[in-house]
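Practice record 12: protein with T4K.
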Amino acid sequence: MTIPENPIYVTQPSMPPMDEFVEYLKQIWDSKWLTNNGHFHQELEQQLCKYLGVNHISLFSNGTLALITALQSLRISGEVITTPFSFVATTHALHWNGITPVFVDIDPETFNINPNKIEAAITPKTTAILPVHVYGNPCNVEKIEEIARRYGLKILYDAAHAFGVKKNSNSILNYGDLSVLSFHATKVFTTIEGGAIVSHSAEEKNRIDQLKNFGFVNEVTIAAPGINAKMNEMQAAYGLLELKYVENKIKKRKTNSVLYKELLSNIDGITLMDVPQGIEHNYSYFPIIINESVTNRKRDEVYDYLKSKNIFTRRYFYPLISNLATYSSLKSSEISNLPIANKVASSILCLPMYPDLTTDNIEYIAKSIKEAL
Ligand code: T4K
């Protein structure tokens, strides 16, 4: 197989028809309404509630600002228990709020925070738990809720990867006090840059909407020191267009995932992740674990080999957040506290996964992986 001319990235947005976006742009031009809770913004909030099966949603300019604002909205301070195995934005959001992250190790099967390790990390300063549904695989929400209730802690889910994911037909976004989504260009559903907070009451949504708009209640009343994290009309219009096609795109992702599984299962040295029972998945990522002791190949050797074949995988999530200079001096960052997370971070590889990936692409990637091993 010859090396493809164009790079195969870990992900690539599957663009909606341009003429349909131009139609929306014309409407924006005519209305002269560009941002601040405009028509498209309101429409997207309504349609997303319906599609996702949630009651309240507040749109944001990106997922990181949504996380920062969600922590403000829940009035969280002190220490927050979280996972080191995530994108840096999860912990950075705590840092930007002056909150100390307390890292807990991950489950070896799901790579999500291990609920059995949470209690031991609780101190009198703990106010909340910030778990992540990594790769869209739901956390053990029941166990986390039980612990939070017993200790009077809030739960904020980083659901950046979990757009459309359901557990027993119920949106995973309905668990916890708040859930945060990312609509970045690399995500299953995108508004180019964007994000959202899912809340459970009109009062909470109202507070979040004030906080993302400088804290304004009305022209003369500013309720809190808010921020500017509003989604603009172009982003919202793009989102409405995306929503028309997202179901079909998730189906294509599923087809790609099935083909990868066919081609890569039963290979010594590679472990694939299973979709847990009762889960409606979004197939946002296709992670594999390279078992160095079996293959005699380091994960980074495979990563480099694939790069030489014009295949750009990603080591989500390496380096581990707890090993970054900003956080490495924390007691909970000690490697002995996080053995599974450190192991997974050094052996994980996320393969290209997006709707427009072709059968040829996937066969080429699978063959190249076998060569690398
Ligand atoms: N929490 C979690 C758990 C998250 O994963 C994220 C974001 C957040 C919070 C924060 O949400 P946001 O504030 O981002 O809304 C990417 C994304 O930038 C980031 O949004 C995402 N997680 C993270 C997992 O992945 P990079 O550094 O890998 O992105 P980048 O630009 O290298 O893109 C990856 C590949 O995608 C490129 O090699 C090519 C392709 N690509 C990318 C873009 C931007 C395209 O084909 N077209 C594009 O427009 O972080």
